[in-house]
Amino acid sequence: MTAAPLHLLGERLMLDPSGALWWPARRLLAVADLHLEKGSALAARGSLVPPYDSRATLERLIRLVRLYRPDRLVLLGDSFHDRTGAARLGQAEREALATLSRLTAITWLSGNHDPGAAEEAHEPPLTFRHVPRGRTGEISGHLHPKAAVTMRGAWVARACFVADSRCLLLPAFGAYTGGLDVRDPAIRGLFPRGARVFLLGKDRLFSFPLAAAVPLSEPLAKAMSRA
Amino acid sequence: MTEPRPAPPDLTFLPSPLAAWFTRRGWRLHPHQRAVLEAARARRSVLLLAPTGAGKTLAGFLPSLVDLAAAPRPGLHTLYVSPLKALAADIARNLECPVAEAGLPITLDVRTGDTDQATRRRQRETPPNILLTTPESLALLLSFPDSTRLFAGLSSVVVDEIHALAGTKRGDQLALCLARLSTLAPGAVRIGLSATAPWPGHLAAFLSADGRGTGVDRIEAPAGAAPAIEIRLPKGPLPWSGHMGLMAAEEIYHLIRAHRSTIVFVNTRAQAELVFAALWRLNDEALPIALHHGSLARDQRLKVEAAMAAGRLRAVVATSSLDLGIDWGEVDLVVQVGAPKGVSRLLQRIGRANHRWDQPSRAVLVPANRFELLECLCALDGVREGALDGDPPPQGGLDVLAQHVMGTVCAGPIHPDQLYAEVTRAAPYHNLSRKDFDDVVRFVEDGGYALSSYDRFRRLFRDAEGRLHLADARAARRWRLNVGTIVEAPLLKVKLGRGFGGATLGEIEEYFVSLLHPGDTFLFAGRLLRFDRLRETIVECSPAQGDDPKVPAYAGGRLPLTTFLADRVRALLQDPARWQSLPPDVAEWLDLQRRRSRLPGANDLLVETFPRGGRWFLVAYCFEGRNAHQTLGMLLTRRMERAGFRPLGFVATDYVLAVWSAEEPHDVAKLFDEDMLGEDLEEWMAESSLLKRTFRHVAVIAGLVERNHLGGTKTGRQLTVNTDLIYDVLRKYEPDHVLLRATRADAARGLVDVARVAVMLRRARGRIVHMALSRVSPLAVPVLLEVGKESVATGEGEDALLAEAEAAQLIAEARGEAEPPAATAPMLRGDRPVHPVHRANVARDRKRRRGGIALGTPGRATLRTIRARRQASLPLPE
């Protein structure tokens, strides 16, 4: 896994291909939108999807924490899929969370799906919060950015980071989290002067200008790429 | 249904009103109809194998008519199941005639997806004597708690077109429903109606109450007159390649003119459009020629069918959408354009001409290229010998079983032991292991995961005796909304004009649209259309001018060559004595191949390699059908990559596979080693999107995710959680979960045809004949002509593509062709409490309600030369 450096307000940040942000100077690791217990939330509504999403998400997170050994882990909100999600955690998942908190200090920010310890975390010059407001120095999640590119007739879509020189949007980290097209006004509007997207690969990130992203619908993307 | 005969009636079997009606019509019973009647009287089930036109349907209903005429009674007496809604409705109309004219005290009614709520309710309260329905509607009926009462008096079950259902998922569902019926109405006899089929034993098993064929009499109608089939070649030398057969348009037009009514069968929808347009270009007499294929809007198709039934059309150009269907007595010629791909299919299609079994059906085969000619000849031999092909039906799908288990519990509590005994009486589940059954039941109960965390969300619970009960009544409603085994690919609506006011012409697969550039013209629904843009799920088009459409290579509806026919083609190639019957240019072509390289043998695998245009080509003559060749191509290119031959791409036809590479491939026999199917296959299947697509279908049918939600439908893309994500998680944590097992079984027998690749590799082991040539061989020319038309790039990972795209972008930036993003402060925006996904949906819904304006004028001309002669101007009933 090779993380890519990103300079934001003079700070050197590393974007990890897993979708996490690593800030070496502060030994701070951040991830967004875990949506833990989304599987059981669906199960409660009759759709018995595999119950391993929380486990998958936490295992990936623990692996990252063991790798970077952060002093602090910031969870950017929507860590649980709903307000009662924490109560539904299974035994193994509780233990995984306990392991995680032994390994590092965790800051739970609130999301729109779940309450947290705080709305924001200020780490000058940066601010961590769930819903982006387009402010300078802002690190946020909430929007689940996902981008697609075409190459030689093939179409590839991945979750991605979106960044300009002032702020950074993190991809959703949870196993059952879908994505919102970076071409959606909600994302594009945050970056009126353009941005770069960093698509998550197996071992590294792939960087493109936001403008190079094609629609998340494959046929539409192909039709447009030849227009 | 029966044919008028001059012979005096022998109708002593029939009760007097029915006998009188037969006499008035001057009809008498065919021997096989009497045999069915006798068997049913002895309360034995019957499988009637008869060619089209032999009075099959009447044979199926006669026992019921006789019974009810002799002893009228209220309640459901006979259940008729057909694969087609239209067929059920048509049979009902045909039955009403004798019932009314003979004054029989019999009520009958149709119940399909088109039946309204009020009628459905009435049917359950006061059931008709004879109910005509489809497998899906039957499954729904059986899920109601009152099904016990409804079916208790059932005396006869008639299954029509049973050969078209057995071996499919709909067939699996029907077999399970029949097993349920044998519990609810153990005394009911079953009458299966089938075209002449290659596996009558399997069909008898399908029909039987024990899944083994016990208690089913097999009655075969005499074969009837042998069809008169000829092969018609277009003028001039036969093309090397190409599948459209347009060169023969003039021949076909003359045939249409010389006959009363013709069905022109083609193999793909694109071909249907092209042949239809070519015929109209020649149609100076403005003969009513129509078009019929699965992508056309439903009402369009219905109009064409009605016009055909009324004898108002001289010809219809059709795909397999018309392989099955109601009888059209007027049809006196069937033309098959392109290779038939299988003997049984050819017979089925030929049978659509002249539904009089004692007169020969007339058919003309028009091959489009040299290989197709060989295939046509072999198919003709097959027809002459009465040799039928087709694979024996596979094991039933576990996803369908899951749907059935839930449906059964919806009707009332049942013990798993009883249910297991019941479902193993259905032929497709005859060999179902108790473990697989228990896993399926557990899946229905609580998801069946090793981690038992969904205990509180169970759909079923067990009582003290261990019987399964429904935990929540809403689950039954959800199940009924999602019943059925047909999962459609996401379809896009084709509209003429902009906005939501445009006329809908039909629906096409996403894949088709991905091949179009805005401004491209293509033929659809018999019109020349210009692709303007894609808006959400709507393909907006405008009428286009000109004669030169660009129809993309469209895989829709393509059928793979059967093993049987492939073997025959191989045998023909091996036997120069039989080449005399070939046109001189084709015989010469094969002779040249024999001298330049060699001919593919019956049991070996010929592989040629040769350089051409700076690349190396490897051509393997496998004759296993496109799907199998595609799979083999994926695996082979992986292996060639590892061997350092740098493969660049491949193309697969029904007959051969061609791979091209930067380096010369050597040690070719090793490339085809059988162990390719081990790790390579696993690895490829895991990475390919194919398994994910298959999993989506399995997940929908099994009820893991819903396609219809209480209070609104979602499109294929918007299933609650993306099934791709579920697949990844499940594969990691429970690779042996019952749904993944079902997925792998489906994939192996479906699109990838792994079984055929395996058999081929095993057969060819030690018998690979490698010919290293200095130039292209005659037999390789056709496939090389396909290169570029529909080749597939080699199986590089997505990440490699991303890296390449990234590099291309960087280079563009360095050259100043693309701007790097500016680095300035973003605009300030207010807080947004609403999640943007929700907002986007709300905005879309609002737009949808508003309605738009159509800019395209439907009346404008399409193809200049066929102006005013389109499908739209045909005398179709409104």
Task: Compose a concise summary of this entry.
The complex is a heterodimer of chains A (about 230) and B (about 900). In chain A, about 25% of the residues lie in helices and about 30% in strands. Chain A is an alpha/beta fold and about 230 residues long.
Number of helices of chain B: 32
- Rg of chain A (CA only): 17 Å
CATH class of chain A: Alpha Beta
Name the poorly predicted regions of chain B.
1-9, 552-557, 712-719, 790-796, 821-838, 845-873
Total beta-strand segments of chain B: 28
Through-space gap between termini of chain A = 36 Å
Characterize the overall form of chain A. globular
Helix content of chain B: 40-55%
Strand order of the largest sheet of chain B: 3-4-2-5-6-1-7
Fill in the keyword field for this structure.
heterodimer; A: 227 residues; alpha/beta; Purple Acid Phosphatase, chain A, domain 2; nine-stranded mixed sheet; six-stranded mixed sheet; 6 helices; B: 878 residues; Rossmann fold; seven-stranded parallel sheet; six-stranded parallel sheet; 32 helices; 40% helix
Q: How would you explain this protein's 3D organization?
A:
- The complex is a heterodimer of chains A (227) and B (878).
- Chain A is an alpha/beta fold.
- Chain A has a single domain (4-225), classed as 4-Layer Sandwich (Purple Acid Phosphatase, chain A, domain 2).
- In chain A, 23% of the residues lie in helices and 30% in strands.
- Chain A has 6 helices and 15 strands.
- Chain A has helices at residues 38-44, 53-68, 85-88, 91-103, 185-188, 218-225, and strands spanning 4-8, 11-15, 21-23, 28-31, 72-75, 105-108, 120-123, 126-129, 138-140, 145-151, 154-163, 168-169, 180-181, 196-200, 205-209.
- In chain A, the strands form 2 sheets. In chain A, strands 7, 8, 9, 10, 11, 12, 13, 14 and 15 form a 9-stranded mixed beta sheet that branches. Chain A has a 6-stranded mixed beta sheet with strand order 1-2-3-4-5-6, covered by helices on one side.
- In chain A, a hairpin with a 4-residue loop joins strand 11 (154-163) and strand 12 (168-169).
- The longest helix of chain A has 16 residues, at 53-68.
- The relative contact order of chain A is 0.17.
- With 878 residues, chain B is of the alpha/beta class.
- Among the domains of chain B are: 16-220, Rossmann fold (3-Layer(aba) Sandwich), CATH 3.40.50; 228-385, Rossmann fold (3-Layer(aba) Sandwich); 598-795, no CATH class.
- In chain B, 40% of the residues lie in helices and 15% in strands.
- Chain B is built from 32 helices and 28 strands.
- Chain B has a 7-stranded parallel beta sheet, with helices on both faces. In chain B, strands 8-13-12-9-11-10 form a 6-stranded parallel beta sheet, sandwiched between helices. A 6-stranded mixed beta sheet of chain B has the order 27-21-22-24-23-28.
- In chain B, strand 14 and strand 15 form a beta hairpin.
- In chain B, helix 26 (689-702) packs across helix 28 (738-749).
- At the A-B interface, helix 1, helix 2, strand 10, strand 11 and helix 5 of A face helix 19, helix 20, strand 19, helix 27 and helix 31 of B.
